[in-house]
Design brief:
By secondary structure, this protein is α+β, with helices and mostly antiparallel strands. It contains 13 helices and ten strands. Helix content is 40%, strand content 13%. It starts with a helix and ends in a 19-residue tail after the last strand.
Length: 392
């Protein structure tokens, strides 16, 4: 909202009336939108029980781009929900594929917790082409009833607890090297490479890169509008959609109630909304207490025709890191701007690969780049229910 417009509204009494109507309203997300985080309870259908855990996986912009097919006994087939893509910030659909991997890993952990030994077959009808997604399955997860039960993975216990906290970190609380070592120990796929830094000079350089790349996304109209259009303000919108970027604070709700939150244009430079948006992203960048990243060997996967499989594998590895971070009391937040492939980001994309890997993306691709640190926990993000992701 621009200050001048806001003052005109105050003068007319509209904001005052809206504030009165919202006064005392909780900023907590509606209970219905968070119901999935209570878990499936005594759900009798094993597959629905497992899916109720898998839907808690992180995904880009909380889009939850998953469709599950249950028509085959003792199996779950996973598809991309192509109505939930992010074509502006994720034009090659790499982040969407990583989101498929987080779902698969959460699903496998849940099935193992029920004594099953799930087998994951990626792209059983053929792998998507690079920079494309289609209607073929991403994965078929199957199991044999009565097969020997695997050891229960302790990370499963963190599925209902984990969250991605998007607030400033405590700059007075450093991350210890032993904590990073414990994170690395959660990795299980040697083809996904893990690395991290706590070095002060390197962290400072990466903080600056995060902030500069965030500004590119926020100042490019078509990319920032992708986020604006996925912003859910107030309990009604949050409950209706249960995805995207949920905001339930009082002032944004007032602005939305009086029509001052523009869903059709980017926030105007100098406006209150613009300054708040920039301040939030700068705070995230400047308070990173370390960074971790995952990468995969691009050239080899390109030669094997398995670039999409590598992205899914990175998502599975990231799910494990998130759960291990939760166990350790550590926060981990993807800084997704610099790894994005839209044209305006190219300079920062190339720099990220130079700084982290010392080689171009044509040789090895940064799949996930995250800040780590400590802060107070916040509420979970809304989730759709299992019925919303079933393919019928």
């Amino acid at each position: 909202m621009q200050r001048r417009s806001f003052m005109r509204l105050v003068g007319g009494g509209t904001v005052a009336a809206a504030t009165v109507s919202l006064a005392g309203c909780s900023t907590d997300f509606p209970a219905e939108a968070l119901a999935a985080w209570r878990g499936p309870g005594n759900e009798p259908d094993l597959r629905r029980w497992a899916l109720a855990h898998a839907i808690l996986a992180p995904s880009p912009h909380n889009r939850q781009p998953w469709l599950a097919d249950l028509r085959e006994a003792n199996a779950i087939s996973l598809f991309v929900d192509r109505t939930r893509l992010l074509p502006e910030t994720d034009p090659w659909f790499r982040q969407i594929m990583i989101g498929q991997g987080t779902f698969i890993e959460a699903l496998v952990l849940a099935l193992q917790a029920r004594g099953l030994a799930p087998a994951v077959a990626l792209f059983p009808e053929g792998e998507f082409k690079p920079r494309e997604v289609d209607d073929r399955p991403v994965a078929r997860v199957s199991w044999l009833p009565g097969a020997p039960a695997p050891a229960r993975d302790p990370l499963f216990a963190q599925l209902l607890r984990r969250s991605t906290v998007k607030t400033d970190y405590d700059v007075a609380q450093p991350v210890q090297a032993a904590t990073v070592d414990a994170l690395k120990a959660a990795m299980s796929d040697p083809d996904v490479h893990f690395d991290a830094t706590l070095d002060a000079a390197r962290v400072a350089r990466l903080r600056t890169l995060c902030w500069e790349s965030a500004q590119v996304e926020l100042r490019t109209p078509r990319t920032v509008m992708e986020s604006v259009r996925l912003t859910r303000i107030g309990p009604g919108e949050i409950t209706l959609h249960r995805d995207g970027i949920s905001i339930n604070a009082l002032l944004p709700r007032v602005a939305d109630a009086v029509g001052a939150f523009d869903r059709e244009r980017p926030p105007e430079p100098g406006s209150t909304a613009y300054k708040q948006m920039m301040s939030r992203f700068e705070g995230h960048s400047r308070t990173a207490m370390g960074f971790v990243w995952l990468s995969t060997p691009t050239a080899r996967h390109r030669a094997n025709g398995s670039l999409r499989s590598a992205e899914v594998a990175a998502g599975r590895a990231y799910m494990r890191l998130q759960l291990k971070a939760t166990e350790l009391g550590l926060q981990m937040h993807p800084m997704s701007q610099a790894p994005q492939e839209f044209a305006e980001m190219k300079t920062h994309y190339d720099e990220l690969h130079r700084v982290l890997l010392g080689k171009p993306a044509e040789e090895e691709t940064v799949q996930m780049f995250c800040r780590i640190g400590y802060c107070a926990p916040t509420q979970h993000q809304p989730r759709r229910g299992v019925d919303a992701i079933l393919r019928v």
